[in-house]
Amino acid sequence: MSKYAGKKAVVIGGTHGIGQTIAKGLLAEGAEVLVTGYNEKNIEAAKTVLGANAHVVRSDTSDLGAIDLLGKTVEEKLGQFDYLFLNAGTAVLEPFSIVTEESFDRQFNINVKGAFFTTKRLAPLMREGGGIVYTSSVADEGGTPGMSVFSASKAAGISLTKVFASELLPQKIRVNAVSPGFTDTPSMGVPGLSDEEKKGFSDLGDAITPMRRHATMEEVAGAAIYLAADATYTTGARLPVDGGLGAGLSYPEA
Ligand SMILES: NC(=O)c1ccc[n+]([C@@H]2O[C@H](COP(=O)([O-])OP(=O)(O)OC[C@H]3O[C@@H](n4cnc5c(N)ncnc54)[C@H](OP(=O)(O)O)[C@@H]3O)[C@@H](O)[C@H]2O)c1
Q1: Ligand 1 centre and the CA of 30: distance in Å?
Q2: Looking at residue 250, what is its pLDDT?
Q3: What beta strand segments (E) does the chain contain?
Q4: Which ligand 1 atom sits nearest the alpha carbon of residue 41?
Q5: Could you point out which of 115, 132, 189, 209 has its C-alpha 20 to 30 Å from the C-alpha of 121?
Q6: Where are the domains of the chain?
Q7: 110 in contact with ligand 1, CB cutoff 6 A
Q8: Which family does this protein fall into (predicted)?
Q9: Domain 8-240, what architecture?
């Protein structure tokens, strides 16, 4: 029998990248999956890639009205469900001296407010034994230049993970976070980069990651699925999937 047959999952930000890979992994093991995204072209593409067993729903995670409507859609399509992935995220690389209010609000609205109010709306629909996973970042610790707002938003996400983990103990729902390093997704977590900027960011990742390579989407998605479904005695934890970057390791010199 498939490992996740009979299980139901919601992946916020599941139309491409790590979220889509989480959805594919769950679908391959028999789960019923509902994914969300906002960009209409990506929604249509995801319907084709994920196939008939996936529900693909357009829902802006930074909009409280849309989150409430999503709750109704989840009730209709899934009823009660088991796993919630708070994966939608965005980043802008810029020194703090040029950050605008619009850029600050956009990152916090998606990475923090969306995760908060989605959990508030959807957690009551979750079954005992279920798991919530917040996709954070290696940048939720440390002081990487150019990532002030993004880092602060992901640190806030870790904080929410721990408090939600406490408050959901009576409901027997575990809440954990995965903190990826540089991961090969179409956006590399920073939507809107030019090809040249993306190459620069990617090269930086190769240079500073102790394992000297990026993560595959499968490596990060596998860790997220493990936390949601299989880590039955783990809650309030942050799992780094970052090639040793956050641990401060260095590659041995010859
Ligand atoms: N890739 C990396 O190197 C890396 C590193 C550290 C952390 N992360 C984190 O990992 C997560 C996934 O990253 P990724 O690289 O896989 O990103 P991605 O490919 O850009 O995918 C992000 C997903 O979130 C959705 N999304 C964005 N804004 C949304 C909104 N307002 N409402 C609903 N959905 C929205 C996107 O859908 P649309 O098509 O609508 O945009 C997409 O499905 C993010 O939280 C990111 O911060 C990534």
Answers
A1: 24
A2: 87
A3: 8-12, 32-37, 54-58, 81-86, 126-135, 174-180, 238-241
A4: 39
A5: 189
A6: 8-240
A7: yes
A8: Belongs to the short-chain dehydrogenases/reductases (SDR) family.
A9: 3-Layer(aba) Sandwich (3.40)
